[in-house]
Amino acid sequence: MTLLTCAAVRRRLPAFYDRELGVGELIAIESHLHDCPPCARDLHALREIGEALRAAAARAPSDDWTGLRSSVVSRMRAEAHESWTARAGRAFDDLHLVWIGLASTVATIVCSGVVLSMLHFASPERQDSLAAVIAVMAAPSGSDLNPARLDSRIRVPSVPENGIVSATLESSPMKGELELPLSAIVTREGRVSGLELLNKAQDYPQVMEFVDALSRGRLEPAQFGGSPVAVNLVWLVTHTTVKPKT
Q1: pTM for this structure?
Q2: Bridge partners of residue 222, in order along the sequence
């Protein structure tokens, strides 16, 4: 059974008195009136006013009042039902709905705050963080965060004649024929980052020292439209021993 507050019952007393409510509401209001003397007094006063008005009203021809009562009542009910006060009253009749709405709003605000704090305080060095992923997706192609792939329109990076990379290649302690497949990112400044040996079978100390030395070097950056761009590349370093004729 629906439990109604005193304010809700008082708003429905005229309709209850005229028996214009549904069966469920009639039962709920009668139950409330049985246990609430102030609301019962209001109903009694309403009955006395109705009886006084009927007693004072002069009798008129029945055809003058045909349809008047139903028309007035329907208009009054429609206006009262659509008023802001009536809407607010219906919203607060069931308080549990109000609490559910407030709890949902607070939960949404808290979750939004947590997500924003994660985005704000996430370390940019962590590649698996949500902030890093969003930063990479938003970065333009060819930037250091979003390197481009080499194609026919991009001039590939080159090794400077005098530099760490050239000196490392010339003074390599490795002997014999050797091919090192490497993957790397060359930034717009020519720095080598993310240098990785693709063939793990060659993971012995001399090779790793060679790769480490290359990672500290700088290249001439790739060019696109006359401007430097960052690129992803696969770098094949070959080392060949040339033997003289005998």
Answers
A1: 0.40
A2: 229
Look at residues 52, 50, 31 and name the one whose alpha carbon lies nearest to residue 40: 31
Length of the chain: 246
**Predicted pLDDT of residue 243:** 46
pLDDT band of residue 107 (cuts 50, 70, 90) is: very high
Buried b (16+ CB within 10 A) or exposed e, 32-59: bbeebeebeebbeebeeeeeeeeeeeee
Residues 20 and 45 in one domain: yes
**Is the residue at 225 inside a domain?**
yes
The verdict on residue 186 lying in a domain is: yes
**246 is a domain residue:** no
Decide if pLDDT at 125 tops 70: no
Beta strands 227-229 and 222-224 are antiparallel
Q: Is residue 145 part of a domain?
A: yes
**The token pair that represents 108 in the structure block:** 């949404």
Which tens digits make up the pLDDT trace of 24-39? 888 888 888 888 888 8
CB atoms within 10 A of CB 26: 15
Copy the structure tokens of residue 97. 């709905």
Please report, rounded to a whole number, the percentage of residues in the chain having pLDDT higher than 70.
68
Q: How many domains does the chain have?
A: 3
Q: Are residues 106 and 188 in the same domain?
A: no
> In terms of residue numbers, what domain contains 150?
141-239
Measured distance CA(166)–CA(200) in Å, rounded: 24
Residues 233 and 145 in one domain: yes
